[in-house]
Amino acid sequence: MTARSIRVTVALTALALVAGACSSDGSREKAARTLRITSPTKGAAINGNVVSLALGVGGISLVKADGNTSGRTGHLHVFIDRDPVAPGQVIPKEAGIVHSADNPVKLTGLSVGRHRLVVVLGDGAHRRIGSVASETAVVVEGPSVDVSAPATVPAGQPVVLAVKVEGVTLVKADGDTSGRTGHLHVFVDRDPTAAGQPIPKEAGVIHTTDTTISVPDLGPGEHTLWVVLGDGNHVPFAPAVLDKVTVTVA
């Protein structure tokens, strides 16, 4: 074999090794990226209206959306009663889609009945990563609260919440702890009271039996509003019955 032939053979071998390594790395990365719902099981009955969706996730680190599009980090997206977007497409922020870097993912505001839940991965720019997905279905037995509000509200105007209630009769606090009656509590920019603890009457907490609730005097910026169902002693229902919305005051 001539010197020239040897050089050509070595070069071709090197190129093949590089190509193989790239292909192998890409295949390994793709194969290692896994997503599986571990709980609840398909068809599970859920008391209250909060689903804790636990997942087995591999091949990617879960972080809040930070613009990273490398595919090495990302976050979870749960599509509720709807099909997920195609791989590579931007996942919108709208009703029926939950964005979360938490595991398990807490799904609130589910109505009474059967719900299909599909989980996919998205990168730091909210684009769907690959085709990996996991799906299950649950049956919410209630009671339930479902809250809606405008995404943005002009400064100086109140935020108006519209609440849909199922499976319970709203009455003023009367000591009834049967689970058949209760009233609503709005937590403004604060976490709800822990299970079993009385909900205080203080600034930042609204007690009401109204299903149209006006929240005044919110300053400019983003606000998180939780609506929690409590019994006649102002104690949150157990299992939890709640929902939340995020509103921006412009």
Q: Mind explaining what this structure looks like?
A:
The protein starts with a helix and ends with a strand. It has 2 domains: 34-142, Sandwich (Immunoglobulin-like); 144-249, Immunoglobulins (Immunoglobulin-like). The longest helix is centred in the first third of the chain and has 30 residues, at 3-32. With 250 residues, the chain is mainly β. A hairpin with a 5-residue loop joins β8 and β9. The chain has 1 helix and 18 strands. Residues 6-29 have low confidence and may be disordered.
Unreliable stretches (pLDDT < 50, length at least 5) are 6-29
CATH class of the largest domain: Mainly Beta
CATH architecture of the largest domain: Sandwich
Largest sheet: 6 strands, mixed
Number of domains: 2
Overall pLDDT level: 90
What is the CA–CA distance across the termini?
77 Å
Radius of gyration: 24 Å
The chain-level structural class is mainly beta
- What is the CATH third-level topology name of the largest domain? Immunoglobulin-like
Tally of helical runs: 1
| Anisotropy-based shape | globular
Topology order in helix (H) and strand (E) letters:
HEEEEEEEEEEEEEEEEEE
Structure summarized in a few sentences:
With 250 residues, the protein is mainly beta. The protein has one helix at residues 3-32, and strands at 34-39, 44-47, 51-58, 61-62, 73-80, 97-100, 105-107, 113-122, 128-142, 144-148, 152-153, 159-166, 169-170, 181-188, 205-208, 212-215, 221-230, 242-249.
Based on the model shown, name its key terms:
6-stranded mixed beta sheet; Immunoglobulin-like; single chain; 2 domains; mainly beta
